Amino acid sequence: MGIFQVRTITILSFLLWNCGLSGQSDLPKWAQERFKTFQKDYSRGTFITPSFLQADFSGDKKADLAILIERKSDQKKGILILFAQSDKSFIVGSGNTLDAAGDDFKWADTWEVFTEKETYETTFTNEGDVAGGREIKLERPAISLWQEEGSGGLIYFNGRKFVWIHQGD
User: From CA 156, how far away is CA 139, in angstroms rounded?
Assistant: First the structure.
C-alpha cells in the first residue's frame, strides 16, 4: 500500500468519525446518553454488523436497543440491552454468562431481530447429547445470535430477565 493510499484512508476515517458515521453517534440520542454510564468499562463492539439492533424487546410498545459491546479489561464480547421506556439495562456476554451461550460472544458472527411468534429450542441429555426439541411461544421480539457455520440461538426477555433459547446442535 502506497503512502497516498494510507493518507487517504486516514483522512477518510477521520472524516467518518467526525461526521457521526462511526462511533456511538449513530445511536438515538437517549441511548447515547445512557451508554455514557458504561463507557468506563465497555467500548462499542464491531465484531458483527450492524453494531446495534432496534426492536421492542421488553414488550412495552417502545423500540429498545441491543448494542454490541466489548469489556475493556479482557476484550470479552457481548451485548448491552437498553430499554427505552425505563432505565433498565442488561449485559449478556462480556463476562456475564447467559446459559449455554457463555460469557464471551466472540464465537458469534451474525445477528438480527427475530420476530416470529414461535420457535424451537434444542434440548440436550445430561451427557450433552441432543435429545430433541421443544416448541416455545414468544410474546415479543428476540435477538437471534449465530455462528454462520455452526449453531446459535435466541436471546429473549421472558418478562423478568433475558434467557438463552439454544438452536442447532
Answer: 10
- pLDDT tens-place string over residues 92-103: 999 999 998 999
Closest by CA to 68, choosing from 13, 102, 112, is 112
- Whether 62 and 56 have beta carbons less than 8 Å apart is answered as yes
Give pLDDT tens digits for 106-142: 999 999 999 999 999 888 888 878 888 899 999 999 9
Residue 38's nearest CA partner among 6, 78, 71 is 71
Q: Count how many domains the chain has.
A: 1
> Which structural domain range is residue 101 located in?
27-167
Cα gap 7→32, rounded to integer Å: 30
Residue 16 resides in a domain: no
